[in-house]
Amino acid sequence: MALKTLDNALEILRYFTYEHPAWGVRELAKELNISHSIIYRVLATFEDHGFLVQNEDTKKYELGIKFWEYGLIVRSKLRISDMIYPTMEKLANETGESVFLTWLDELEGICVDIAESSQRVKFAVSIGSRTPLYAGASNKIIMAYVPEKDQLAIIEKGLQEFAGYTIVDPQKLLKNLEEIRLQGWCYSLGEYSDAVVGVALPLFTRKRKITGSITVAGPEYRFPESKVREVLTILEIRTSEIQAYLDTIL
C-alpha cells in the first residue's frame, strides 16, 4: 500500500470516536469529501482484517475487536489496573471526588481510566472519550507543557465554547497556559462542563516530556475554592507515586 493511501486510510479511522462510533459509507464520504467508492474500499479492507465490522441492521461500520485487543496490550504495558488505578482509588476515597487519568494522544486528551467518587452526585466522563486540550483542568495542564507550536496549532483549529467559562480568546488562553506551567498545576471551573471544578497535575516521561495528567473533579457546590488547597496537597502526594512508577516504564 502506498504511503499516501495508508495515510488516507488511517485518517478515515480517526473519525470513529466515542461521540461518533458508527459511520455509513456515503455519510463518511460526505464528511471527508472523498468518493464513496474509495471510502467503501477502505472500510471493506479494514473489515477484512477485523478492524471494522458492519452492523447488519444499520449497514454502518463500527470499530472491530482488533482495537479492543490492542487497547488491552497498551493497558497491560502501562499496568493501569494493578499499578495506577489503586492509587487513583485511594485519591478518590481521600478527596471524596472522582479521579481521572487523561493521556495525551496527538493534540487531544483521551480519558484512559476513572476512579469514581462514592458520592451520589458525581462528575461523569466516559473512558475512551476524547476532549480538546484547551478546556478543563485535565486537558489544560497537558496543553501547558506541549511545545508552543502545538499550542498554536490547537488554537488555529478554532476554540469552541463548551461551557460558560471556556476560554475562547487565543491570547487569554496562552496567558493562562503560561500561568499554569509556572505554578505546575491547574484549577478550572465550568470550562468543559458547567459548575464542575477540576484540579490537575501533569504526568511526564523520564525525559520530562508531557504524557498525561491526573485530575480530581466534582460539582462546584461540593468542591468550593476554599477546598482546592487541601485537595491539591493530597493530589500531589498520589501523583508523585504514579509519576515514580511511570519513570520506570516510559
UniProtKB/TrEMBL annotation:
Q: Which GO terms describe its molecular function?
A: DNA binding; DNA-binding transcription factor activity
Question: IclR-ED domain: which residues?
Answer: 66-248
Q: Which UniProt keywords apply?
A: DNA-binding, Transcription, Transcription regulation
Chain segments annotated as coiled-coil in the UniProt record: none
- What is an example of a Pfam family matching this protein? IclR_C
InterPro entries tied to this protein: GAF-like_dom_sf (IPR029016), HTH_MetabolicPath_Reg (IPR050707), Tscrpt_reg_IclR_C (IPR014757), Tscrpt_reg_IclR_N (IPR005471), WH-like_DNA-bd_sf (IPR036388), WH_DNA-bd_sf (IPR036390)
Limits of the HTH iclR-type domain: 3-65
Q: Which GO terms describe its biological process?
A: negative regulation of DNA-templated transcription
PANTHER family the record matches: HELIX-TURN-HELIX TRANSCRIPTIONAL REGULATOR, ICLR FAMILY (PTHR30136), HTH-TYPE TRANSCRIPTIONAL REPRESSOR ALLR (PTHR30136:SF24)
Name of the molecule in the record: Transcriptional regulator, IclR family
